[in-house]
Amino acid sequence: MASEHTAKAFDSDLQELTRLVAEMGGMVERMITESVDALVRRDVSLGKRVVATDVEIDRLQHLIEERAVLTIARRQPMAIDLREIVGAMRVATDLERIGDLAKNMGKRVAALENDFQPLKLMRGLEHMTDLVQSQVKSVLDAYAAHDLPAAMAVWKGDEEVDAICTSLFRELLTYMMEDPRNISFCIHLMFCAKNIERIGDHATNIAETVFYMIEGQQMLDKRPKGDMTTFASTVPNS
User: Fold this and answer.
1) CB distance 105 to 39 below 8 Å
2) DSSP string covering the chain
3) Which terminus in the chain has less CB density within 10 A, N or C?
């Protein structure tokens, strides 16, 4: 009877962790969308809202860590049960970093507020964002469903994100060479593109966590990388 009670209590703890990760994931997905919408529309208020949301993302990560540690201390789980808890903490860490990257883009909106440039300069960034956001959603769904094939599809898809990032950098360089008045604006977009590419990296991290949870070991395969130019790799992270 005591064992049954313990099992039910552990299941309840695990469900709460899963719920918190899902809540955090939903907020992070909205931050990605809103940060790029704010850039496209030069919506400073929306950019500030994205920045403010990061506080709640940080709070959720701390809460998940606290609940996970308490669950380990109280229930002393082993094998797959322990990997579930470790997995929740790892996913929460990646989501927190994704939130930081979206916040960085939200901060740039104010710098671009009065810099009116053709919308065509934004299209490549929007396309890349759509792909990465799809990757984030897919991997969070795979995490919730314990769907390893879906997680591995996201892992392999990072190569395409890298290739698009490289193509976008080249396109922005072309715009800068065509008209020096585009330089400041395009530099900001390059920083944003680098942030989005790093969000894609965190989506692949989550895919590797799903592999660890299900298979009980770390992935040994090297992550496929697209063609990244030397210039692209030298752009700072924020």
Assistant:
1) yes
2) -HHHHHHHHHHHHHHHHHHHHHHHHHHHHHHHHHHHHHHHHT-HHHHHHHHHHHHHHHHHHHHHHHHHHHHHHHH---HHHHHHHHHHHHHHHHHHHHHHHHHHHHHHHHHHTT----THHHHHHHHHHHHHHHHHHHHHHHHHHT-HHHHHHHHHHHHHHHHHHHHHHHHHHHHHHH-GGGHHHHHHHHHHHHHHHHHHHHHHHHHHHHHHHHHSS---SPPP-----HHHHTS---
3) N
CA dihedral (129, 131, 136, 142) in degrees, to 10, reads 170
Q: How far apart (Å, rounded) are the C-alpha atoms in residues 196 and 133?
A: 9
Secondary structure of 60-86 as H, E, C letters: HHHHHHHHHHHHHHHHCCCHHHHHHHH
Are the beta carbons of 32 and 199 closer than 8 angstroms?
yes
Residue in the structure block whose two tokens are 């790093």: 198
Nearest to 17 by CA among 53, 58, 69, 55: 69
> What φ, ψ does residue 215 adopt, rounded to 5°?
-90, -15
Q: Burial of 28 by CB count in 10 Å (0-12 exposed, 13-18 middle, 19+ buried)?
A: buried
The pLDDT confidence band at residue 232, using thresholds 50, 70 and 90, is low
Query: What pTM value is reported for the model?
Result: 0.90
Mean pLDDT of 81-106: 96
Cα–Cα nearest to 153, from 163, 142, 162, 145: 142
